Amino acid sequence: MFLLWGHGALADSDSMSRCDKPSVIESRLKNLFEEFPIHRGVANNGQLVIIYSDQDNTTWTMVRIIPGGYACIIFVGGPWVKLKIIPIPEVKPKISNEEIEYVWT
Q1: The model scores a pTM over 0.70
Q2: What is the Cα gyration radius of the chain?
């Protein structure tokens, strides 16, 4: 069995299994691919999701911590792109002559 990683390398399942202890997964991502945690969040089902990326954001790995304490790699890819957050404009009604006109502010 082989796993395809985001940076194009193939890893034998013996050297990089898909699920393992969180410390083992994190150590292997650090040592093999120089990936470190950049985001953490809790999913609706209570599982912890961690996104790892290398310093240049050319590769990333998404890991979930499942009940029982095991970490499983669920997605890999590259590059990791950080999006700029743009606020959504507020819409205010402008009433004149019994007609409503919506104005973006």
Answers
A1: no
A2: 21
